[in-house]
Batch of 4 targets.
Target 1
Amino acid sequence: MKADPSHSDADLIARIADGDRLAMQVLFSRHHVRVYRFVLRIVGSQTVAEDLIGEVFLDVWRQADRFEGRSAVSTWLLAIARFKALSAVRRRSDEALDDEAAAAIEDPSDDPEIAMQKKDKGAVLRQCLQSLSPEHREIIDLVYYHEKSVEEVASIVGIPENTVKTRMFYARKKLGELLKAAGVERGWP
């Protein structure tokens, strides 16, 4: 089968439901990077994101027969990934901060390397994105980085389409304010 683009994701899911390991490999190779980046933006830890990717695709293997085709396969994957990532974030926030972890927290003052990164517009944008609320950051991530439609985002996040539109409006407004405060005006290259 190889990574033949003529096989749609829905075809691959049907084959996975029948136990086709090669179809699972093809689906994984198509989507693992995108899903990993999405999860990484939520959890903020490469190790946790890598673990969750394994869990996401294990769920796909186990639940492929439950895929109803009401959304794109990529939307279904991101919805599974989002649920797992948010669960991991909740578990982490419930853990007590011990003395060793507290000592490992870095001093927030800028060192020379950070000062140079702040001059980089890409770094400024990433920093501004991190300053958004998790709800706004998630909407921006899905719409602009994963190129999902408002309808697909509503399906992934589990909120009405109008709420997605409202969050997008306020997220872009807040991002514009943050960029302006950071010295980045319109005319972004």
Target 2
Amino acid sequence: MGSKNKLRRFRENETFENVIQPSREELEKDQFSLKGKWNKDFFKNDNPIVLELGCGKGEYTIGLSKQDATKNFIGIDIKGARFWRGAKTAIEENLENVAFLRAQIELIDRVFAENEVDEIWITFPDPQIKYKRTKHRLTNAEFLQKYNHILKPEGLVNLKTDSEFMHGYTLGLLHGEGHEILYAHHDIYENEYSPKAVREIQTFYEKQYLDQGKPITYIQFRIK
């Protein structure tokens, strides 16, 4: 993507009512005004809140919002030029249960209050295979504790990935720490019992992976 195109998207994001872009300083100082008030001040309803972490173009956030209008969906990514597409689509299609947040995932506990979130989706994250990158894996022990803080007691986490490494690493960690695994499969399209939201929403990159014959894995779990 050209720099001019990126700048145009950044400027357009600033005009979108469904895009929130707090500064890192604001989050680090724990001064984000919507923390604990997403339902009251932004969505203006009491519907459950569902997050997509590392949402990219926002395809999953948009897809989930169309499947269930009784929930609020927030796509989170640090790259605003990417989720511009999802934000624009939500506006064009009058999807009022969708928002996009530009923020680092490691600051997620500064964005949402304790027990404010009902469900988290992690879709095709960078598996960060090298050992020295372990701290950046979105399902490592530190991230799970951050998620546990903002999730309601029965809150769910979903991991959908083409990475067998990420799938295996996460399953091992969940078993080792005693978390509750509700569903796990190494190839969702070979399993007729795969959840609807997993089979019926496909991102641009997922379609490429399928064309290459790569299996798509999925885990749903609760953090204990």
Target 3
Amino acid sequence: MIDLGLTKLALIGAVALIVIGPKELPKVARMAGTLFGRAQRYISQVKSEVSREIEMEELRKMQKEVESAAQNFEQDIHKEFSEAQQELNELVQPSANSIYAGDDTYASPSDEAMIEKAKNFRRRKVAKTSNIPHWYKSRHGHRSQVISGAARMAKHRVNRSPSSSFF
């Protein structure tokens, strides 16, 4: 880069005043300033465009790496899933044959037991997945078990019969 000090700028200004003349010097100075500004803007645009292209190329490389890693992960998952499915089929196959053969070693749970199990699971899941931490609930007296409004009303009724209880 050219090192321009105060003395060099004064010398350039004096030569320009003598060569161009005092009448044309302001016009030439304005024109030189606008050309210099345009050149600076053009250079900065080229630099930013080059840096954008470099960043885009890096992003493309990273995208390819991520896609290949995702494909490898997906293949591993499918492989593990198929192995687990084969093992499960091998385990289920003998017990299924014994069911069809009339063997009573496998007892299916009743529908009522399954419904009760599903209700309990849902209740526990809602109680566990709320936004308030468990330690805060226990300290400040919040409910730890979630029950419906109808069940709460039935809980506080005076004449409760065992058949009308939901839980």
Target 4
Amino acid sequence: MAPDKSINERDKLQLQVSFHRAMNAGLLGTLFFGVLLLGFVVMHDTTKIVPPEVKRPYEIGSNYANKDYLLDMAGYVLGTVLTVTPETVDYNNKVILKMADPDGYAGLKTALDAAAMRLKQEQVTTIWISRKEEVSEQDKWVKVSGKLKTFIADKLTSEREKDYLVKFIITTSGRLYVSKIEEIVKRDPSANKPAADN
């Protein structure tokens, strides 16, 4: 083979190798961009679901749930925790603890167990009736105002207006956990007033 011909052949092969390297780099870049785009869509895409007993759609996504979902879940949680009898309280508490945030599980279990023990000892039945709700989608909490009726041996012993706060945690996969259930205790404005001088 003539030297000039072999040099031309070598140059052609080098051009082909350079072209294939550039194509491989381009394909690798496209693949990497596709993976990033897929990850973005998976993390930020919301899914609409309509459970059979609910008439409105919910939107749940990465660290996000819409107002309707938070309201309904808070109503379910409070109804389960506060509408109880001595016979149903343990089962209801187990249902809520399955929804508990792993980090706050111990505190929530302690509070629910203490309330259950009191209900059983005093043979108390309570019924919760929600009246008004306030929700924060950003902070994932719902404040619910309503009436708590207390019965002892089928006799109504008290009927009090109460406010409760239910806080949620939503994971990147869209799973909702209950992180806190607490009564909002209102301060008595008359307690802060100074006594009148005589």
